[in-house]
Amino acid sequence: MEEQVSHFVARGQLQPLPPPSSETGFAGRVRKHLFATPFDAVLTILFALAIAYFGSAIFQWAVTDAVFTGADRTACLATEGRPVGACWAFISAKFSQFLYGTYPLDERWRVDLVFWLLVALMVPIAIPRAPFKRLNAALLFLVFPLVTLVLLTGGRFALSGSGIGVVFALAAAATLFLGSGRSSTVMRSPAMKAAVWLALAGFVLSFASFYVSSGRQTFLTFRFEMLSLIGFAAAVLAIVLAVVATVRSAEEGAGLVSLLVPTIVAIAFVLILTTNFWLEHVPTNLWGGLLITLVVALTGIAASLPLGILLALGRQSHMPAVRLLSVVFIEFWRGVPLITVLFMANFMLPLLLPSGVSFNQLLRVLVGVSLFAAAYMAEVIRGGLQAIPKGQYEGADAMALTYWQKMRMIILPQALTLVIPGIVNTFIGLFKDTSLVYIIGLADLLGTIRRGFGDPIWITPSTPATGLVFGAFAFWLFCFGMSRYSVFIERRLSRGHKR
Question: What are phi and psi of 99, to 5 degrees?
């Protein structure tokens, strides 16, 4: 007897069945992630009990038994039958000091203005679709530092002719760099070659005038040494020759305005620092609290990234002298602890300066921190450069791009994208390391909090713990913000994430 078998053939695409109800919703996620196996269930219960135990103790200390108001230490002293937890009244009374240090009360509006300007300029930069990115970046990285320096100190610096010569020599070097990226043939121009030597001579002569005394001349209301005046003239001539040579040989448009940006910045730097804005002078030894922390951290972050890129490129250079100098610099600064760098910057840097030239303590710290962070940043970026396939370099060479065009348009964008976690990790470490400046006498946020422990009005058993918890939360807030923003940027650039 033949068995009859009926066949079913679907005539259309069947819709997928929904997942079981036990795998969806809140209950499904809890079961999958917390109670998937008996061992996971035991761990979940143990951790839940631990969190409940410690969380209740912390809540009782920070909220239930805490003191939120009070005029002095008596409000935070335990009495019979009344335990005292956190002394938030101490934080409230010292909060302005934690922000400004001993900055004069009548001038603290200048610090507030700097904070608001920083927020107003950083928010559009952080938002990917915000318009006018280039203008905003120019204001943030070129104009804002000068405005901040004048607002916080009062301005009216005595800038010597030697310093002006060095500034314009650096502007000439930046103009040469921009010009070399515009054309693959501009460096062969006689005018460009002359500009290179003039810029080098301008820097050497201006720097030598710090140490070698020569006849003094007054030019444009500034006092120049003869060597610095010659160096200044050589730097200006180098800028002119570089601009002319680039405009003549550039393949795409003249781009005259962008070539003049370094010169405009140099002129603005000199004018802003030497102009009298009728602001009261506030020495840096009166700064403190969050102001010092942000100044040191932001300066180190802003300076270490470009320096780290140059050092990473130098370490991979085919020129032996450049590679050797880069390796020596990186290995030296990575081989010493930051506290040693701070002591060296504070005590040994003045010994290397010419007579009559001195940096205040905060500026020495900024120099030391920036160089220290740049060495670590260089190794992070070098890892990104090594991760780029060789075909990217060969393809850029096949397009007849100059070295800087290749790095700016092809290699560095990919390398920096790959090492975003490492870059932000270095920034976070630098931000936390700013607390070490307290050892050499600068009262950063943590240092100002620790100084408050010695105030007789607020000496209580709970004051130190409260102050340190507040400081830890402040540092965590900034570091967590940087971490989450780096995750957002990394996901937006689609590196290491599946969509």
Answer: -85, -45
